[in-house]
Amino acid sequence: MSQTAIPEFFVYGEPARALDVGFLHVETVRARASVHRGQVLAHKHPQMAQITFWTSGQGLYRIEDRTWSFSAPTVSFMPSGVVHGFDIEPGTDAIVVSVADAALAAVAEHSALPLDQPVFVTGRGDAALWERLTDTIKMIQAEYAEAQAGAEKILPPLIAVALSHIARLDTQSHAVTLPAAVALGGRLRRLIDRHFRDDWPVERYVEELGTTRHLLDKAARQVLGVGVRQAIGERRLVEARRLLLFTIRTVEDIAYETGFNDAAYFSRFFRQAVGVAPAAWRRERVSSK
Q: Are 60 and 68 in contact (CB under 8 A)?
């Protein structure tokens, strides 16, 4: 089956949709049992990564063209755009933490785990490391379920800690070879995260990644859902929305922080993309909290 023919979901069984800045979602595999009935077919998530921490039971897990038997505890990290699925035995459950790429970008600099490559780790190795990961995932689950004031500030650091724990366990991981376009799209995403403020032309990304413009644009559309130029613009927009929502910095400061030399041009860019000016968008969001 070609990558383009594989279904894309928000969470399994629900159509893909636009994700708000800072989007996080936590649920158990068992909570969606009426949809998958123990068999989650090959699918992918556009613009959303997932940590899946298996707490009980056993089954088969598939990433791209590889399949493994697993039993709890097992954990995986799945970047957006990577095909995966599983079959599980009755009584098997997992905690699934879904994170929009936009939110993951802010977490990345605090994570010891590279976030452009899938990771699948079975329950071998240091028991103390598995205990720490278990405690962290359960804290994420509790914070999300309780939704107390300040949860939006507590959850991203906890996710960074969980990802770093997975990196420490990664000596027991299974290597996954991604299709060339998916791997290139993941590398592009990381490069954009590092340099979207630098106003690089598309040709600079092509050169840094050692590819052609045609192949890079094709990979961007397959993995990121848009062309390279639009992906850069969307990353700048994501950062602008995050700073508007979670800081008190001025619109002028945010314009310069996101790579715009002209605050007026930034405001026009933001209005064209979102429908309202940056200051008005901030007021609407803050007043609705």
A: yes
Task: Determine contact, residues 13/36, Cβ cutoff 8 Å.
Answer: yes
Q: How many helices (H) and strands (E) does the chain have?
A: 11, 9
Residue 204, Ramachandran bin (φ over 0: left; ψ between -120 and 50: alpha; else beta):
alpha
Q: Are 38 and 89 in contact (CB under 8 A)?
A: yes
Q: Cα 272–274–280 angle (5° rounding)? A: 105
Find out whether 31 and 144 touch, Cβ atoms under 8 Å.
no
Under DSSP, is residue 46 helix (H, G, I), strand (E, B) or coil? coil
Q: How many residues does the chain have?
A: 289
Cα Rg of the chain (Å, integer): 19
pLDDT tens-digit series, residues 208-253: 999 999 999 999 988 888 899 999 998 899 889 888 988 899 999 9
Q: For the whole model, what pTM was predicted?
A: 0.76
Residue 43, token pair as written in the block: 């699918």
Which of 24, 18, 21 is closest to 46 using CA atoms?
A: 18
What would the two tokens of residue 97 be? 């933490």
